[in-house]
Amino acid sequence: MGHYMRVLLLPSQPVFTMSVRAHSSLRWLLVAWLLAWATQAQAQAWQPDAVLHRLLIHQMAQDRTGLLWVAADEGVFRYDGYDLVPLAALAPAAGSGFDHAQALAFDSEHRLWLGCARGLFRLHGTRLEQLALPKVGHRPTQINALLRHPRTGALWVSYGDGLLAVFSALGGAGRSVALPFSDAAAWLSPAADSAVWAVSAMHRVAYCTAAQGSRLQPYQPLGQLLPVPGTHPQLLVGTYALHEEQPDGTLRERLRWLPGADEPNFRPGQQGNTWQWVAAGQLVQLQWEPGHHLPQVQLSPAAFERAGQLPRQYAVFTDANGLRWSTSSGQRGCYKQRVGAESVEALASRPLRRYSTRAITRLPDGRLLVGAYGAALVQPADSPRAALRPLPLWEDGRPSAAIFLDVLRTRSGQVVFAEENHPFGQLDPATGRLRRLAMPGATFTSSLCLQQDAAGTVWGGTNRGLFRLDLADGRVQLYTRPADATPLPFAQQEIQEIVSAPGGWLWLATSSGLYRLHPATGRLEHYGTSEPASHRLPTDALLCVWAAADGAAWVGTRDQGLLLVRPGRGLIRQLTTATGLPSNTVATVLADASGDLWCGTYAGLVHYNPLRQRLAVLNETDGLTDAELNRQSAWRAPDGSLYFGGVGGLHRVRPGQFAVSTLRAPRLLLASYTQHHSRTDTVRTHFLAGAAPLFTLAPADAFLELNLALTDFLAPEQARFEYRLLGSSDTRWNPLGSTHVLALRGLLAGRYQLEVRGVSGRGLPAQNQLRLPVVVEAVWWRQPWAWLLGAAAAGAVLYGLHRRRLARVRREERLRSRIAADLHDEVGTLLTRVSLQAELLRQTQPEANPTLERLLSNSRQAAGTMRDIVWGIDAAADSVGALLDRMRDHLDQTAAPAGLATELHVRGLRDALPLPPELRQHLYLIFKEAVSNAARHARGASRLDVTLARESGWLTLLVADDGQPTGTATRSGMGRRNMQQRADLLGGTLTADAQPQGFVVRLRVPF
């Protein structure tokens, strides 16, 4: 068998695959050098978990819902990516004292078995029970290891020193299994049949069965070796090598992947036929293929130790979503990494260890040119993974420290660059010599960006305007409109980027908005904050632009995210941190061959599918050395690769390898919920152990708070959630933004269905949606019976008030009738006798007596006034009919003797219609005064018309004669003022005006 080593480099991180044993020291030196280089280049792929990193973790497990369980020195916890929930909160009866937890296992009923210093326990839902162990019962005993056998479902338990028990999958008490050694069995592993392998802390190996006990294997390894199930001859795995059992019971090394001696406390993770662990800064993966006796070994960098720490072994656990977790039982910390090749590859630089990049392009000779702060870097044309090397630059015979802000390789092979603090220039790639282009005018110009359009014209953007570059003459010219040679409004703006669009158009992203320019005609369109709705943008501070094939533009802004702008229609779509962007500053934007967008931001790289509107965020967990990417540091290569630069260097992205469909869709979980009551001492958080309940908000509940989670734990802070509430007035999907907590408050009484959906940071929707019923109970005074009772009580009160008012009205009417009767019978009769006596006395006098005439006249007037007063008080006259009778009587007594023909017109009034006494009395007195004035003062009048009408809530009285007025004083004296006062008391209006054909008095009051 030949000795050889095969090295395989995967897309994002080097992985070394070895097939046979190698002994040569020279080969091991080569391996060590390659491993050191790989660790330096790609160690950033592993990231510490912000929450679990502070624990000393012994084992991790995952339940069927996707939540993680952690056994640590600090206790037993459930983890949802955001919060650690201690066992005491999940099972209130558990209490405390579950520290020094060593082992976890789930049985066939999905119950959690856990071992700690207090003994063996089983959790089912929220019920925790302690299980008796053979020989010790319920006494506190340290559990060393737990194993659920994949074939039988039996639970094997190692506890104390030299004690082993097995619990049947069907239940019942545990049975003791004798061990051939007295020290603790530190590791259990299933054998090919129903037996298990047990390895002690002193490295002895035993084969154990439930029925026949156990037997000690004859070999005595120096370090801890773990048997591989189903191998013949038997294989044993150590930290650094694989050993094979010989017929005489000795061991022979068959495969070595790292230098060193096998160590104790070896804890590999086992998922099916794959074993994996971390040692000496490397992730070691052993995978047994069917039909092969020896495994395939893969090594990839996983440097966890800080400077000065001793190397430690780390167990590796892979969850259901393809995420690796690495922990050490002797070191606090927890690291995670996504399984599989990544799409982002960081490019190293020599001798620079860290560099910040700006301009990127491919030189005519095939080399990759990168403009970095402090140097210009190149990569060989035939080595896409080779380190970048400095390119010496020369200007005027001296070394140049030029910093390329943008670089353009023209279709003719010339290389033009823009430098922020200098004019445009040309680069000779062969010699590194720089030549500056002549700028018009003496004012300093900062060259910012370059673009070559479809016609071959090279355009340059500056802080002084748009320029056309003439490379043949070595000069630049300011662009002006072809028709009138007027400059464009760019004198005080910075043109950040120029892109060519279909139809000969140019899109220009500036510090004062977005411009669309047609250079051949000079036509210019502006999109910004000051424009009308069809051209309005939420900001003028733009950083980059990309022209879509349909003529639209994707625009990156400084503070408003990513914008989609269509000519003539303006803003169509906006993406911000509320919709998944890691930052509202979008520095660069490119499109790949499939039309998907790739945007460099100050907090990560964004992949966006415009058709499906699916967004994914890549950061350090995906291969970026630093998530902050730079402006104008993006370039699309002819082979479809995308290059993005940032403060952490240059990265190569191959969009074809970024396939969201290859990732496992996470599950959306409701981790817990809290009902906040009006009394703070009754607030309690419920941690779910099964299906979500029916949520009921009682009147005393202030609001309901739901804690959501996705089973993709790599970057939980990037997960996004949306919800809608069916049954409410607004059934739209509402984003939660950057939070995973949903609070329901201010809901009206009723039944609702809450729907929640989630998307991972990689843009992968959850495989399920949550549909949760919510019932909001009405407070007692909002219940139907309370409304009916309240309506009945209000009706009773109103009816009582109405009855009281009617009684008061009746009393007043009786009082008015009695007063009217008394006045009529007593005072009226007395005035009538006085008038009759005065009439008799005048008849007996032979000569006229003025005093007697005045007495007779006054007595008659007093009798008439008394009749008016009695009529005004009498409750029996509170109707329209009584008023009309009184008005007719007065017309007969006053107008007829004056020789006036009268007519009374009535409209919209019935005789039985009630009239308030105050309205009836004032209305009659105004009528009486108007008729009396007409009878006395209407010179040459022959007719008097009176109209009383009701229309649209108003009562109108009209008194009109056809005479000629005798003067203003006659018709506007004391009588006029009295009528005006009465009209004001009624809340109406009164007019009295001379007309061409007579005099008209008009009264209008509400009724």
From TrEMBL:
Source organism per UniProt: Hymenobacter busanensis
Domain Signal transduction histidine kinase subgroup 3 dimerisation and phosphoacceptor: 816-873
A cellular-component GO term for this protein: membrane
Domain Histidine kinase/HSP90-like ATPase: 921-1006
SUPFAM superfamilies: ATPase domain of HSP90 chaperone/DNA topoisomerase II/histidine kinase, Calcium-dependent phosphotriesterase
Membrane spanning stretches: 784-801
InterPro entries linked: HATPase_C_sf (IPR036890), HATPase_dom (IPR003594), Ig-like_fold (IPR013783), Sensor_HK_TwoCompSys (IPR050482), Sig_transdc_His_kin_sub3_dim/P (IPR011712), WD40/YVTN_repeat-like_dom_sf (IPR015943)
PANTHER family: NITRATE/NITRITE SENSOR PROTEIN NARX-RELATED, OXYGEN SENSOR HISTIDINE KINASE NREB
Keyword terms, alphabetized: Kinase, Membrane, Transferase, Transmembrane, Transmembrane helix, Two-component regulatory system
Keyword presence, Cell cycle: no
Domain of life, source organism: Bacteria
Record GO terms (molecular function): phosphorelay sensor kinase activity; protein dimerization activity
Name of the protein: Histidine kinase/HSP90-like ATPase domain-containing protein
